[in-house]
């Protein structure tokens, strides 16, 4: 936990949560960088219109000759010391290895005097106007293969180039999305003593509020006083401090020093997503800044349990369900979901776990993507990348990576938590006041859901009329198929909010309104 959490509590409901400054749908658009020298007017081709939802750029003249490439060099020493631990075998993801400086050189597209018909015509103007720098082809291949363990010291993230466009006649929508979103995603380097690594973050405001994961800024609970460096997509480096952490949903807000012109992300509505919708994940896997991967929404209303050394002990709180026994002891057994720091073999086991609601995506997500953006086809933020599934590898020296099953915290939850962290340094979470277990684990089970084992006297569940033996099947309209599902949805709601709880009792389905308590 951060030592900057001595600000007043925030106890509002999810509906009344304060709005995140400068992070609304009309967020500042990325600024157009400088371009190559102008060519004679007669050789400048007509420029297409920008697509809907993207800024209409002012088109520069086409360059007469491509710029030459120059590549500075940089070399870093090997790391030392021990790193945070892996709770389970296999491949989750979190903070990637500390980065190395990589060569970056400017590159301009050659002048084109012919205009071909292309289905991507609507995005060409956006890409040309951005005058995107290149020189990234092949960047990081040697680094990733030969220097997997980066130095602990906070150094610039590898490859601060933005987007490379070699052929403006064959670009696609993903290129346009990346052009819009990359200025709003940063690389975060964290160190504390001999521990350290890198993650990603999303810009919330022009003056430098950034949203990321708690396990990134605390090195999974290893430090409350980290040294943090933030590198923007265009290569600027800022120091940063923790504003507040929320280990219950693994979110954190940091604030950089001296920033005045950062580009805030545009928030999307995760509640409107459909399975099959396009997703784009942007971040710094393995310290490789400005990496873009694509996929779809594979599943919605998913909940996972992840071992976390940063999570507080919750043995005295109810609503906890894991392994189907509802014992609330924070042990998620052989769960295939967890944070992976991708640095050195684990030295100890996490003793607690968190249950969170997530969006499942097959967009490749790897160590270092933690805290980065998951955006929709309009380039709007719909999730904060947080974890991936493993295949159950038992090798302590094996390196984790994407198997096509990644998870992001829905933007609707992230927005509320971020607003509370910015306002008061900590976030609130609901407490139903019931001990639960998987209904499917019962010998006579006929349905899935969260079976209530007991209720706390005076708690929200008891006051709403819930009792032992009831099977909860829906919470705030979201299907509940297990104890973890219910716990994750209760924690997603703000303390003091009113929730709709649907349950089955004696074969009859009923719905009640419950006022949630506050998780301590």
Automatic annotation (TrEMBL):
Asked if the record carries the keyword Protease, the reply is yes
Q: Which Gene3D superfamilies does the entry link to?
A: 2.30.42.10, Trypsin-like serine proteases (2.40.10.10)
Q: Which residues form a coiled coil?
A: none
Q: Where is the PDZ domain?
A: 416-507
| Record's compositionally biased regions (Gly residues) | 321-331
Q: Where is the composition biased (Basic and acidic residues)?
A: 1-11
Superkingdom, natural source = Bacteria
InterPro entries in the record, alphabetically? Chloro_Bact_Ser_Proteases (IPR051201), PDZ (IPR001478), PDZ_sf (IPR036034), Peptidase_S1_PA (IPR009003), Peptidase_S1_PA_chymotrypsin (IPR043504), Peptidase_S1C (IPR001940)
Q: Where is the composition biased (Low complexity)?
A: 27-56
Q: Which UniProt keywords apply?
A: Hydrolase, Protease
Q: Where is this region: Disordered?
A: 1-118, 308-340
Family (UniProt): Belongs to the peptidase S1C family.
Output this protein's name.
PDZ domain-containing protein
Query: What's the source species for this entry?
Result: Microbacterium kribbense
């Amino acid at each position: 936990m951060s030592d900057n959490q001595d600000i007043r509590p925030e106890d509002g409901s999810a509906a009344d949560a304060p709005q995140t400054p400068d992070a609304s749908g009309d967020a500042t658009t990325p600024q157009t960088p400088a371009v190559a020298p102008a060519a004679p007017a007669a050789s400048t081709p007509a420029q297409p219109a920008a697509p809907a939802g993207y800024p209409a750029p002012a088109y520069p003249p086409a360059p007469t000759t491509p710029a030459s490439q120059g590549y500075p060099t940089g070399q870093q020493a090997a790391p030392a010391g021990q790193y945070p631990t892996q709770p389970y075998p296999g491949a989750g993801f979190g903070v990637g290895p500390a980065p190395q400086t990589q060569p970056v050189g400017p590159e301009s597209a050659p002048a084109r005097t012919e205009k071909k018909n292309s289905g991507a015509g609507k995005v060409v103007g956006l890409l040309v106007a951005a005058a995107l720098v290149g020189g990234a082809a092949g960047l990081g291949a040697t680094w990733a293969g030969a220097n997997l363990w980066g130095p602990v010291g906070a150094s610039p993230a590898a490859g601060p180039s933005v987007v490379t466009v070699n052929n403006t006649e064959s670009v696609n929508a993903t290129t346009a999305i990346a052009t819009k979103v990359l200025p709003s995603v940063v690389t975060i380097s964290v160190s504390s003593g001999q521990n350290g690594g890198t993650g990603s973050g999303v810009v919330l405001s022009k003056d430098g509020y950034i949203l990321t994961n708690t396990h990134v800024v605390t090195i999974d609970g290893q430090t409350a006083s980290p040294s943090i460096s933030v590198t923007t997509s265009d290569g600027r480096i800022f120091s940063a401090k923790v504003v507040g952490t929320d280990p219950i949903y693994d979110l954190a807000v940091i604030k950089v020093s001296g920033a005045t012109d950062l580009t805030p992300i545009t928030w999307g509505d995760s509640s409107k997503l459909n399975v099959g919708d396009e997703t784009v994940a942007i971040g710094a896997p393995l310290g490789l800044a400005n990496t873009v991967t694509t996929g779809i929404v594979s599943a919605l209303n998913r909940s996972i349990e992840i071992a976390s050394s940063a999570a507080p002990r919750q043995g005295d709180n109810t609503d906890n369900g894991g392994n189907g026994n509802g014992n609330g002891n924070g042990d998620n057994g052989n769960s295939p979901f967890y944070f992976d720091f991708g640095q050195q073999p684990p030295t100890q086991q996490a003793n607690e776990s968190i249950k969170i609601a997530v969006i499942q995506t097959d967009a490749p997500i790897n160590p270092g993507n933690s805290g980065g953006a998951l955006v929709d086809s309009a380039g709007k933020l719909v999730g904060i990348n947080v974890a991936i599934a493993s295949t159950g590898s038992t090798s302590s020296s094996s390196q984790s990576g994407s198997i096509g099953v990644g998870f992001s915290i829905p933007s609707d939850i992230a927005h509320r938590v971020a607003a509370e962290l910015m306002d008061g340094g900590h976030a609130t979470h609901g407490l139903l006041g019931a001990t639960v277990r998987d209904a499917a684990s019962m010998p006579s089970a006929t349905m899935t859901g969260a079976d209530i084992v007991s209720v706390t006297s005076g708690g929200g569940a008891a006051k709403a009329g819930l009792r032992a033996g009831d099977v909860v099947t829906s919470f705030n309209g979201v299907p509940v198929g297990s104890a973890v599902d219910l716990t994750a949805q209760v924690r997603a709601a703000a303390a003091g909010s009113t929730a709709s709880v649907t349950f089955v009792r004696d074969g009859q389905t009923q719905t009640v309104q419950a006022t949630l308590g506050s998780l301590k």
